[in-house]
Amino acid sequence: MKNSMKFFIMVLVLLAIPIVILAQTEEPKEKVITINAQQFSYTPGTVEVNRGDRVTIRLISTDVHHGLYIDGYEVSTDARPGQDGSLTFVANDTGKFVMRCSVTCGPFHPYMIGYLKVKPDYRLFGSIWLAVGIFIGSVLLVSRRQKP
Ligand SMILES: [Cu+2]
């Protein structure tokens, strides 16, 4: 393979990776998620959002009085049948957080647990990589052109 071809492919890969990262990362947005609470679980049991999202959780109970408390975010709400609960927060911390029932709702109440997953925001990382890639690509291109 010719050297110039190798160079061209190298630059293409250098630029393609951050473009793929940027294309797959969603913009932060408003997310409304409905969670059903029933003795002794949440449906869905795991909720996934992206870092920066403004998340509103609507809690619905169909049997008894339940609560929802998110460890780490320290936010909570509760719901009774016909009386939904609601809580809103901005998902600024990434990681996996435990959501637990905050109202004693029966014998297995301590095992009533769900999870909140906050995925990281790769947009800054992707943008920096792209900028550096374009810079390195241009410098290499210019330096090759100047050779006799
Ligand atoms: Cu409960």
Estimated helix fraction: 25-40%
Run of helices and strands:
HEEEEEEEEEH
Based on the structure given, which CATH architecture of the largest domain is correct? Sandwich
Shape: rod-shaped
Q: Look at the structure and give the mean pLDDT.
A: 91
Helix/strand/pairing class, anyone? Answer: alpha+beta
| CATH structural class of the largest domain | Mainly Beta
Distance between the termini: 21 Å
| Number of contiguous helices | 2
Describe the biggest sheet? Answer: 5 strands, mixed
For the largest sheet, list the strands in their spatial order: 3-9-8-5-6
Bound molecules: copper (II) ion
CATH superfamily of the largest domain: Cupredoxins -  blue copper proteins
Radius of gyration: 24 Å
CATH topology of the largest domain: Immunoglobulin-like
Q: How many E strands? A: 9
Q: Which range does the strand content fall in? A: 35-45%
Give the number of domains. 2
Low-confidence stretches: none
